[in-house]
Every structure is written in C-alpha cells, then in structure tokens.
## 1
Amino acid sequence: MRAYRSLVGQRGVPRLVVAATVTRLATPVLNLSLLLAVVAATGSYATAGLVLTGFSVALAVCTPVIGRLLDRLHPRPVLLALLAVHLPAYALIVGAMLRHAPPAVLVGGAVVLGASAPPAAPLVRSTWSAIVPGEHLGTAFALDAVLTEVTVVAAMPVVAGLVALASPLSAVLAAGACTLVGALMLLTIPDLGSHGRDGDQRHDGGGRGGGGVLGPLAHGQVRVLLGIAACDMTAFGCMFVGISAVAAHAGESGMSGVLLGVYSLGALVSALAYGSRRRDARPRRQLAVLHAVSVAFLLTTSLTSALLVAGALLLAVGLVSGPRDTLHQLVLGDAAPIRQRTEAFAWMSTFMWIGNGAGTALAGHLVTWADGRHHTSFLAAAVASGLATLLSLLLRRATERGEPAQDAPPREDPVAPGARPGQRSTVDG
C-alpha cells in the first residue's frame, strides 16, 4: 500500500477523497430513497418511475453543460450557483411530497433537482491531474474507482437504516446533506478545476475552454472512449438484470444482492491492487485485453444456472472490471484536451447513464422473452463488452494514425500510466 500512502500524503488529496466519497454517496442514496418516498407519498410506482426518469434525464443532459461551465469559468462560483438552485429544489420536492402535491409538481421538482446537481465526480476526476504528480495518477484513478464502487454498495444499507429508523423522506434529506457537505468541501480544495500541474497545453483546443460547440466531442479519441463507457454500462445493466434472473430461477431471489456484492468485492480488490503498482504496459492495449477477458467470463456465466458457479464467475468479472475502469479514466483524462477535461468526464457520466438505462431495459425485455431465464441477458452483456473490445482496438489504431495519446512510444524513459507525454518517471518495482 506504499503507493496509496504516498498519494494521500500529497497536498489536498485527503480533502478531495473525503469530498468525493460524500458527494458520490448522495446520488445512489437519492435514487433509492426518492423512489421509496414518492411511493409512500402517492402510493403509485408509476409516479415514482416518472419522478426518477425526470431526475435522471435532467442529470444526464445538464451534466456536460455544467462541465463546460466549470472548465470555462472558475469552479467555485459555478458550484455556489448550482447549490443556490439545488438546495431549494430539495425543499420543493420534499414539501410537495408532504403536501401530497400532484405528480406534475413532483416530476418538475425532480427535473430541477437533476438539472442543478453539482457534477462532483467529473470535477474530482479532472482535479486529480492538478494536485497529483503524473506518476501517482494511476493510483489516484484506482482509488477513484474504488470510491465509486464503495458508495454504490454502501447506499443500500444507509437508505435501509434511515427508512427503518425514520422515514424515506429522511433518507432524501440525508442525500441533500451529503451533496451540500461534499460540495462545500470541494470549495476548499486549492487547485480545484485547475488544468494540470505542469501547464501542459497538449491539444488544448485553442485556449481556455476552446474547441467550439462540440468541445471535447470534437476529438475522435474522446468519442471512442465515451462509446466504450456506454458499452461497459450497457453490459453492467444487462448483468444486473441477469443476476436477479439467475437468483430467481434458482428459487433464491434474495441471493441477487449477495451475487452483486461478490461482483463489487472483486472490483474493489482488483482496483486497489492495480493502483498499488506502476506498470509499463500501454493502457490502451490493456484496455482491449481486459474487455476481451470480460467477454469470455460473461459468455461462460450465460451457460450456467448454478448459483455457486455464477458467483465465482461474477467475482472474476469484478476482478477484471476494477483495473478496466481505472484504465478507462486514465486514458480519457489523457486523451481529452487539457482545458476541457471536466466536460469530458461529465460526458462520460452521461454516456454511462445512457448505457446503464439501455442495458437494463434491453435485458428486461430479453429475460421476459426467455421466460425468466438469465442466459439472454448475460449474452447481451457479452455482446456489449465485445463491442467495447472492438472500440478499444479502434482507439489503438487511431493512436497509430498520429492522434495525441498517453501511450505513444516514448523516446527515452517509459511514460507511466497517467503521466503526460514529456513527463518522465521511474518505474516502481
């Protein structure tokens, strides 16, 4: 764990880690608690579904727009402006549920809530490059992936505990408190939203926040990486439904949470292990190999109905996904124009939301068509991972055609994962 001790010793990192943890806990807690709170207030799952859809769509659409503002303007006034809208939106939707307001009011409040949500995850990811030297970026992004996984897993018991002790509305308020505390902590980070420690102007897009209307989407490397993100989350959405189906088919519906926990455990352990060492191998090549291995495990999972075997295979899929997700962030952070990095990570969040929604919807139809059998959903997950593999290879071919890339062959010293071209480092054994 020497790499993590060295990372945490960097100025501003402890505060950034705490802020990232608190803010990322808010979204999964809000998703689950908002569903329960609306059902409790209206008695309608249909209304709850509309509220969550309004929130999710507004979040997915507005996050890249806010990301561009964070890149072009100073992050602090943007965050404060967002909080000035976001917190009253919480008050609006909570008050509407207490007063049993019409569904349209609840949906409207959810839309404002999603549209004004501070994009903490993209901002944190873009800030890593400002406060962490290049030789520590691999460890930083590995820790970032672990924090994401931990907060998603922790959200379920947090909501369950708050609902049991108080009410679903208390969990909604807790999500708002997490957002407020985390955003205020981000405001104390000295180099929040800065564009790198070394003033690197590589494929800068023409000045602060340049790049025209498309922003980072004008760069082919970024578009391919966003496509990979969508495929990965489509695969996850299919796998999520498949996990529920395989448990139900075995007559152990309650085991779906255990199987998902096994997958998350694998992702946590592998991401931590991957970030603890430096590697010379080119990240894009590793990305293609890891996706191909995911395809093999998902295909094998589609062939089994035994819970024990499925659990072992899902653990293997998780062990692959930890390093893969870390590499994805590293490569995207390096491929994006320096002054459009926050927007690029914001687009990644949007594509992930889209992919997850598409995956769960597709797998739901496939499982229904297959009379509750899980095989089709895991096959669909394998197809999505296969497409991500092909896109990873396309990314390498684009690199060979001369686009700026993190893993271009070095002239002298090897460039470690996460280090920018021209930034040398030694390989840590």
Note: Residues 196-210, 399-429 have pLDDT under 50 and may be disordered.
## 2
Amino acid sequence: MRFKNRFQRFMNHRAPANGRYKPTCYEHAANCYTHAVSDVFKKKFSSGTHTHTTDIEICVHVEYKLVQKAKFSFPPTRTVEHCFHMCDRMVIYFFIAASYAPWLNLRELGPLASHMRWFIWLMAAGGTIYVFLYHEKYKVVELFFYLTMGFSPALVVTSMNNTDGLHELACGGLIYCLGVVFFKSDGIIPFAHAIWHLFVATAAAVHYYAIWKYLYRSPTDFMRHL
C-alpha cells in the first residue's frame, strides 16, 4: 500500500469522459523534456532534405512540435489550455497526412489510387472540423478517426509498383500504433504522455530515414556512400 501511494504521486487520476487529462508537475516536466529528443533530430534532417514534398512533411511536423511546446509552456489558464489542446489534436491529423505525402507524391500510383494524394488532406480537414465541434466529447470516436486515417493510405501505398522503403514505412507505422497504447493511458501509466512523445519521435525518425534513403537520395548517391 505504501509503494502504491508513492507511485501514485507521479500520476493524476484518470481524465473524465468529457475532459482532458491534467498531468502532475512531474509528468509536465517529462512532457517538456521529451520534446528535445525529436527537436535535435528534426534540425539535423531539415538541413539535408530539400524537396517540396519532404518540406511539407517537415513543416507540418515542426508545426506539431510548436503546438506541443506552446501547450506545455504557456500559463495553464483554462481558456489557453483548452485552445492549445484543441490545436494539438487537430494537428495530429495533418501530422498523419504529411507522413504519407512524400510516398504518395513521389511514387507512381495507379489511376484508382492517385486520389489518395488529395484525399488524405480532405480527411485531415474533416478531422479538424470534428475536433472543433466535438473536442473531448467522444474520445473513442476520435481515436477511431486517427487510426482510420493512419491505415487508409497504407492500402494505397502498398499497391505501388516500387515497394522500396515500404518496410521502413510499415515499421514506423507499427511504432506509432504501439505508442497509441500510451497515448490513451494517461492516468493509468505514469509518464504515459512523455512515453508517447518518445514513440512519436522514434517513428518519425524511421520515416525520415526511409524518405532520405529511398525518395530524396538518388541510387548513385546511395551507392557512393556505401
């Protein structure tokens, strides 16, 4: 019982059905520090990748990080906190769309699959509207939308004639999915949100590596560096 009480001080109670989770001071600090892990990587990757499609992914990922930083850095007033939490959930949809954008735009797709190039952004816009109207009201529905958007483009990507890099893309997607367990475990697992950040950083690193190796670099450049 004493061990349980010591463990509990690092974790707040489970969030209500229609409200957001409020981290303890320990969890809040961990949430801030874990952003540094992905920030270092993004700066290194951004300095070496310069195509329009990859720039889109970088910009959306940077926007996601800025919203996350603002959410954890600004004074936790009720209005400001709610606003940034909504923005955080909205940007996740565009984060998913941007992860697929390089593959959908830089690889040849069939006539029935090419629509996914713009449809992922339409899904992201629809998710944004949903969060604006029903934020924190139907959490299971919101999770379902995230997973649907994450898996739907995968059906198109796997049908491409050139499948180089899809193994890394799938590995990154699996890491994201494993991270969802922690994303939904606030109030159950201590530092769950910080752990979720680490899963996101790792999955993004795998995806960035695949883009750099298979989409950005030419086969000649790759052989030169072997």
Note: Residues 219-223 have pLDDT under 50 and may be disordered.
## 3
Amino acid sequence: MALRQLDRIMEVLESRQQLPELLPAGVWNSALDEEIAALDSLPGAASKAMIALKAGLHLCNDSLDKSHSYSQEIEDDATGCYWHGLMHRMEGDYSNAKYWFYNAGAHPALGTIGRNAAQWLSRMEISAKAEGRMADMLQEMGRQQAWNPALLTDAVALQESGRAGEDTREILQHLQQLELAGLLAYSRDAAASGNR
C-alpha cells in the first residue's frame, strides 16, 4: 500500500472542519474522491480489506454511491456489511441499514466505538439537550459496552422525522463521526496488515 497516498487522504478527511451531515446531500470533496479511486491501482487493491477501506474512505467523504459500490463487492465480509449499513443510514434507508448491521454481526470495532461514544456522551448534559425517546436512546448509548449501530440508526430516524429537537442533531452527528472514525481506523489497520 502506498502509505503516503493513503496518509494524505486521511489527513484531508481529518482536516474537515464541520461535522458531516447525518444525511449528506453530496460529495464533500470531489478531488479527494478521485484520490481515493486512484487507490484501485495499488497492489492488493482487490483484497477485501482494501475494498472495505475504500468503501469507508468514500463514505467519510460523503460519496455514498461510490462507497455503496465497494461495499456491495464484499457483502460476505463483516466490515463490508458494516460500511454498507452506514451508507444506507446516511441515505436515510434505515431498515436497510439495520439489515446490514445485523449481517455485520459482532464486529471487532464495536467495542472501541462503544467505549469512545460512552466516554464522549459522559461529558454531555443529555437531559438539557434531549427529552423523551431521544434522551432514552442517548442514555442507552452512553451505557453500552459495545456499540449498537442500529440504536444510532433509530435516533437518526427520529431526528430526521422532525419529532426531536434540533439540539440533538449535533450530538448525533458527533456520534456518527466517532463511529465512522472507529470503523475507518479498523479498516485501515486490517488493510495494512493484510489480514482478513
């Protein structure tokens, strides 16, 4: 893997100033999409780990269609299923997202994502920003030992339905960003080690 090329892509994604939208309307950086696509020419680009990494990089760039194409290539892989589910959540197809999360099973990244989310949520005043079902879901996310992507999907669906206050949107965006970053780190490590 050309680490310099991948490091540059990661740096650009990490430099993003605003949190990605829950339902992005378009690609964040089209030039970056081209750089990610250029990873196809690297040795080992056809491995499941590299395909999953490319699905993740495109999704972190809000390039849902390209991410979808890659995740569809590895539907028999837990990481591919997880990226597939995230893509469907970000397009607003919540039941399809939950189907793919179910297929991903107990993914190894769920523990790390869950701990990071719980730690971040422990610093939040949830009761001051959320009420009712949304507050319950956020509190449950804060107690999880392992991340439950379907629970965040339900919270995003509630937010997008208009039945939750706008104060919770940024919380959900931050949780989704933590989830994307956790799965991207897992995918990068898997691609670098060549294990799958």
Note: The chain has a mean pLDDT of 92.
